[in-house]
Amino acid sequence: MLASSVLRKSALQGMVRPKNGTIAVRSLATTPRSAATPDPDKDEDNILPTPWETMFDRASQIFFITEIARGMSLALEISTKPKVTINYPFEKGYLSPRFRGEHALRRYPTGDERCISCKLCEAICPAQAITIEAETREDGARRTTRYDIDMTKCIYCGFCQEACPVDAIVEGPNFEFATETHEELLYDKEKLLSNGDKWEKQIAKNLMSEFLYR
Fold first, then answer.
1. Which residues pair with 135 in a beta bridge?
2. CA 137 to centroid of chain Cα atoms
3. Which pLDDT value is given to residue 22?
4. Between 20 and 30 A from 73 (CA), which of 81, 86, 154, 196?
């Protein structure tokens, strides 16, 4: 009841009865007309003239005058300092002994394969990139008949190398093994053994340099 009486009173205040008897509705807007309608003359008076210095700075930046001078000065400064780049592939940088590159299967100095087919590398591989099949030989030793690595799945985490108890599977120092086809990145046992034979000296040197930390 109180709310309805307040609304009725507000509506009556908005209506004005003139002398001719007709009812006219008065606007209840609280904003004055002068504030709602801007005066163009006053706005023009508020605009300040742009200084010539500011205009010249903007023009110089637009036409790249200052940028070119700044770039040339930087190039001249760098040209007097020693070079920090190398001419790859004719020059190559330093590789850490712990660098994880292309995979390889190693052999003993006698020529026998190190892998004992324990499948720890296959089990620990988070990308499931390793597939191993094994058999028992006549002397009772287990050796692999299949050792495949899908290099497109490998994330080079090094878990296979850390899990191997005989240092058979390692990630060697080679990082230049880009191919043109997908099939060339599906490594089999023969490919891995050939990598081991090729990089055995460097792999053995790297493992010896960090044996205290393994």
1. 143
2. 48
3. 46
4. 86
